[in-house]
Amino acid sequence: MPEETLFNQWTNVVAQGRNDLVFEYKHKDYGAYQIRRSYNRTIFIALVISAASFFLAVSIPAIIDWINSHNQEVVAPVDNTPVTLTPPPPIDPKEPPPPPPPPPPQLATVKFTPPVVTDKEVDEEPPPLQTETTPQISTETNAGDPNAEVVIPENTGPAVVEEAVEAPLVIVEQMPEFAGGEAARAQWIKKEIDKRGYPQMEKEAGIQGTVYLTFVVEKDGSITDVKVLRGVSGGPGYDKLALAVAKAMPPWQVGKQNGRAVRVQFNMPIKFSVQ
Fold it and tell me: Can you state the angle between helices 236-247 and 182-196, rounded to 10 degrees?
């Protein structure tokens, strides 16, 4: 038996001497013999890999800082040397000054004469009408430059002021109403629908429902801005019919707020049923 050492003791299951003795007459090409024989080498490799991984993990921040420091642009140092400005050249007193700008063109003016109070009858000519060529009022009379160009400032002439359109209200003190009331409105709508006739496709398919409309009753009672809020699903013909009927309504009684006629937003349902 080989001499016992620290790693070759009988109590060590991976000791080479013990394995040779235990597996002396057994197969040694594979199995437990090979596992015990390569145990120390496997442990060593595992320790080396673990140490290398730990070292790499610890060194990653330092490696990143080193890469970033080398990728930074090199900033040139700032030159703080004071600069001495040379004084401007002296003014030559013999050099003539620049010519003054040309004066503006002289316009024709008429001297203003203060009125004199007298009890005698005085014949005087009426003042001239103000036109583009009429002389302006001044403290003295000038002939003016006939070739001068008269510039009239923009936005000084007559302008057309458009009346701002008031936004329609939803609730007012006196709401607009169909002439004759709700019953008259329902009767008129039924009569108008019967006159125009139900849409053929919806009628044959038995589709029915309610179309919800919105429109504006103007200050004169007329109906404008008619729109469909919610139509009948699968029945577009009802939506078109309801729009046509609402647009054909006669003028309503206007809505009022504080005794004044105002525009009012009004919602109205029209129900379609197939018998």
Answer: 120
